[in-house]
Give the backbone structure.
Amino acid sequence: EDGDHASDFRARFPDVLDRVRHVPGVEHVGLTTSPPMGGAGITALFRANGDSVRHLPGSSVFTSWVSAEFFAAAGLRVVRGRGVLPGDRQGNPLVAIVNESMAHTVWPGEPAVGKCLVVTERGTPCREVVGVVADAHVGSIVEKPTAQLYLPTAQDTSRPARRLLIRTAPGRAARVAIAVRAAMREGYGDWAVSRVRTMSEMLAPEILPWRTGAALFSAAGLLALLVAIVGIYSTISYVFSQRTHEIGVRMALGARAGNVARLVVGEGVRVVSIGVILGLLLTLAAGRLVKSMLYHTSPRDPVVLAVASLSLLLVAVGACIVPAWRALRVDPATALRAE
């Protein structure tokens, strides 16, 4: 909203907003002054008695002026109190919504809802905190959530919310994006088309290194799994090729095929089980070395460790199938004559 298009943008905005709301697949349309994971930095916050609010995480509070549907569109859960209502406009009591990080820091051990907050300048009217919402990332998906403040855009005409945050039905994001571009083209012309972006497009540059790393680690893991399969198969095959005479004796004395198969598979699983236990101990001991390379996953996650261990055991069983099949085909008479 700048340059020669500023006045035209404001004049046509209500019509464009109505077009977007009626696009099939659109569930919520929120208005905001800031892009996702952004906000204006405000450093001046005061309590009702005039004392400055200090010790906030970060150097400033990320503040956004939002509409009533913003939290539903952004997927931000209201933890306590309420969000912005259509009635939060000029002439009505000033309100504010804070995130959990700010609530715990400014009012530790106390309920934030009902508290009074003065924004930007002493002496200005106090805003009542009417709700607490879940934390959201600011700036980067890897940064820890910091203090965030949300104010109703309808109560501050100097902060018009001209950004649309659209929540679509599952699987409809691509179609909705095309329809929204068409609606904006009809309302504004070609100059506004490039301003429509999905969250996937916005996050792609940041997620790409993580996806690349995940792909490389996955490839390395598959290669290691293949080496494990070949190693287990080769070892079990060699061991039981040296035990041909023993197998022949067992079968000549009446050993059943199932017993022989269990002997072969059990040998392989026993060896791998020892390796899995040692690997788990090393993982637990060295987990902190890879902690910085993981995103929202603990290096000691019991589910991940259990799945990895079970996968290796299944691989061991699979790698033992061929040696077991060969053992079952041993002719007792031939085996008894073997050295």
